[in-house]
Design a protein that fits this description.
Elements (H helix, E strand, L loop, with lengths): L2 H4 L4 H6 L7 E2 L3 E2 L1 E2 L10 H14 L9 H21 L7 E4 L2 H16 L5 E5 L4 H14 L2 E5 L9 H7 L4 E7 L11 H10 L3 E5 L11 H4 L3 E5 L10 E5 L1 H6 L10 E4 L4 E3 L13 H17 L1 H20 L4 E4 L10 E6 L4 H10 L2 E2 L1 E3 L4 H7 L4 E5 L6 H18 L1
Parallel strand pairs: 3-15, 5-6, 5-7, 7-8, 8-9
Antiparallel strand pairs: 1-2, 4-10, 9-10, 11-12, 13-14, 14-17, 16-17
Helix pairs in contact: 3-11, 4-11, 5-6, 12-15, 13-15
Bound molecules: pyridoxal-5'-phosphate.
Length: about 425
């Protein structure tokens, strides 16, 4: 059975919507794009929505009384509503547009962290966190004197939940947890960890960068307090991300950045703040990108998030099985029969991931090689780098076969 026969998505029709997929590498080799965990490609409806903004109503938001500004303001504000619906948030007041996941996490670390952490408190991170979580929280801990604790990862690529229960005590103010690991593919039990956090009156921040693009996410059902994700990993544009925050929390937090757009009234001595979410969106915001992201949410919903999840699980499982059956490949993360996000990271004996990635590039296959912004996790795995193949709505098992053929080419060259 091929991925198209698997039938949760009409992959051929989907591929038509992504113009970039018909380009070639070196003028003749078709592109096989397997670097979706880094950035996904952009479909026509998203490109169209952004073009429409620039063709028809490009203007700044919230500050003009003229027609274009009013139209842009309405579309930009409604984009917040659209994203709220996409992840099950109450309304636009819980949706802050940021530059990306990294900025959303910095917003929590700095605005919430500086106001709520001190030398008697602790934050709990994990050994599999992306640097976007590790670095901002380690920094804010240095500034405030708070302790940082880390939930370890066991040999099957899962968080050690027994250890987590020991690490989370009444001193802990916040847990920051990747919903899906961008290196291991592990799907972490975010709801369970939210319960653990709340038993100790702590908050939980979910890093949804690898979850929102590929599975239905409902922040209320997960009972998370904050949740962060990026537009460019979910068929949307670069330059935009989202921080979901519980309305009462966002209300109570000080601003993150200061300037125009986030104030209510300014005097020479001080200022008062605009309502949420605008209090957290200083300066001219990512207007075209916000409108593009709302179009991406429409696009993904038109395919159906359950169908997307099923398709990607099918392609990922196929890739995992084919890679794991090779004696010269070591796959990291959960075993084949377990749920994982839409990616497989691995090492190939005798070929450094950077060399492999560059040989694959010559065969048209784009993958990511390196530490994937998880250096402490790679330290724990005792490897300096892995190769990561990651899948999206337009990938097929035939493309996985091309990846495997590329591995053979690399082996021949290096043997
Ligand atoms: N968190 C995870 C799990 C990721 O995979 C990434 C990106 O690779 C990020 C955070 C950071 O995303 P961005 O670079 O869009 O801020």
């Amino acid at each position: 059975m091929t991925a198209t026969e698997h039938a949760s998505l009409d992959v051929e029709a989907i591929r038509e919507e992504f113009p970039i997929l018909s380009r070639t590498i070196d003028d003749e080799t078709p592109l096989i794009y397997l670097d979706n965990a880094a950035t996904t490609q952009t479909p026509e409806p998203v490109i169209r929505a952004m073009n429409e903004f620039y063709h028809e109503y490009n203007a700044n938001v919230h500050r003009g009384i003229h027609q274009l500004s009013m139209e842009a303001s309405i579309e930009y504000e409604e984009a917040h509503d659209r994203l709220a619906r996409f992840i099950g948030a109450s309304d636009r007041e819980e949706i802050v547009f940021t530059k990306n996941t990294t900025e959303a996490m910095n917003l929590v670390a700095q605005a919430w962290g500086r106001a709520n952490l001190d030398a008697d408190s602790a934050v709990v991170l994990t050994e599999m966190d992306h640097h976007a979580s590790l670095v901002p929280f380690t920094q804010v801990a240095e500034w405030t004197g708070a302790e940082v604790r880390h939930i370890p990862v066991d040999e099957t690529g899962h968080l050690d939940l027994e250890r987590a229960a020991e690490l989370v005590d009444d001193d802990v103010e916040l847990l920051s947890i990747p919903h899906v690991s961008n290196t291991l593919g592990t799907v972490n039990p975010l709801g369970e960890l939210a319960d653990l956090a709340h038993e100790h009156d702590a908050l939980i921040l979910g890093d949804g960068a690898q979850a929102v693009p590929s599975r239905p996410v409902d922040v209320k059902a997960l009972d998370v307090d904050f949740y962060a994700f990026s537009g460019h990993k979910m068929a949307g544009p670069t330059g935009i991300g989202v921080l979901y925050g519980r309305a009462d929390l966002l209300e109570s937090m000080p601003p993150f950045q200061f300037g125009g757009g986030m104030i209510e009234r300014v005097t020479l001595d001080g200022a008062t703040w605009a309502d949420v979410p605008w209090k957290f969106e200083a300066g001219t915001p990512p207007i075209a990108e916000g409108i593009g992201l709302a179009a991406a949410a429409d696009y993904l919903d038109s395919l159906g998030m359950e169908a997307i999840e099923a398709h990607e699980a099918w392609v990922t499982e196929y890739a995992h099985e084919r890679l794991a059956e090779r004696p010269d490949v070591t796959v990291v993360g959960p075993p084949v029969d377990e749920e994982r996000g839409s990616l497989v990271s691995f090492t190939l004996d005798g070929v450094h991931p950077h060399d492999l990635s560059s040989i694959l590039n010559e065969t048209g296959v784009a993958v990511r090689a390196g530490d994937h912004c998880t250096q402490p996790l790679h330290d724990a795995l005792d490897v300096s780098a892995t190769t990561r193949a990651s899948f999206y709505v337009y990938n097929t098992t035939a493309e996985v076969d091309a990846l495997l053929e590329g591995l053979d080419v690399a082996k021949e060259l290096f043997d």
